[in-house]
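Example 3.2
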Amino acid sequence: MTKIKNTKKGMAKKTLSISLAVAMLATSNVPVWAAEFTDGTDAAFTSEAVVETPVEEVVTDAPVVEEVVAAPVEANAETSGNQFTVDLKAFSYGGEEVSDSIVWGKGGLSSTMTITDNGAFDASQGVKLYNSWKVNGKVHTESWETATGKEQKWAIPDIDSSFAGSTVAAYFYAKDNNGKVVWEYTSAPIKVNAKKTTDVVKAEFVGDITYTGEETEYKDENFKIRLTTGGEWKDVPEELNNLEDYVIGYQGDRVNVTDAGVTVTLTPKSSAYTGNLVVNYKIAPKTLTNDFEKHMEASFKDPVVKYNGVNGYESVKVHKDNITLIDSKSKADLSNYLAVDEKGYVTVYKTTEGSKISLINGVPATGTNKNYKIDKATDRVIKSKNVLEITKRDLSSLDFSVKAIKTSNTRVTAEELLNRMTIVDKETGEDLTKNLTDELDIVIPEYTLGAITSFTIKITPKA
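Structure, written as tokens:
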């Protein structure tokens, strides 16, 4: 066996098995502590050597130090060496075993561990063990002295919202009597996830909101968002119990009445929570009684119209396309509030106050604008901004046609002819049959019964 003599004066002769040095270096990711290679004085013995196979033993005249066998290391854990062996059991959280991730808020994270001293340090170094934890790789400010050789508890007392988004790990380390860290161990990290917002708090609208023509506001005194856990307000966590704790977004029309309504999204500003609260509200139509002119504007596009018929109440029929009805504030089209008959006509009343246009009852079944509800108990007419002028109708402006009649030995009556007559405005093509037939007289000439014949009838306005 080849021997290498240490000839440095003042250094005690010691024997160190080269297999120990190789074992230490092979299981450590950090430099070997100088204390492992000192002779008890302040001077440290260091050397560089190329080790070849087979390895030769290096011997001095000092007693041989026992070889320390490296212990297995926990998967994904980090250790600076094998001076101590850590047996760390599975982490427990909220009464369940966990491995790589948890959600904050279920109490403390704990485990049990046994640390074995492998005899790498002598008593003169005064090495003591401590336990603590790391958050995002940084050591917690507090630590506790730990014994070796027996099972002990390790814990982070409370995983609260401050841990959300972080990683935590158990951390054990050893210091010598000079305060120098001579060994450390960090467990595999556990990710602390944020809580789902919907698991913690609920949102709902309280009160009603009615169309005003202005953008609706969720902070209105009689219309607001209430945050609750399903219990009392006090149960809502502090980070979520105020609307200022959220970024609020809207989707939908916040001004007008719509079938879909408005969707409000509340996103917590706190990183301790993930996901949104979503709540929907609908704007209710404003009920109008006799104050239509305050909210609507009506006018005739062409205020001069030909007489189109009378229904007995000093009124005329005006085609809907000749009437403009808009919102006084937004100027939006409200033509779906006109009371239009099956022929497309609206009854306009002639009064001493002006021309008044008929409106529907309730909320329109068609059209996009449904911001108002017209009370059925009112007269449901709106005064036009301009007065309708009705000119006399010249019968020559109308086309009259009568369907053929089959008869035998009875004469055709005026009523039969009127029932089979069609009256159309030559200029507009509007069918005025329903409006005018009750206001016409028909004169039927003499004709021969029993023969196929045709004749010309005379049509005149009723006196």
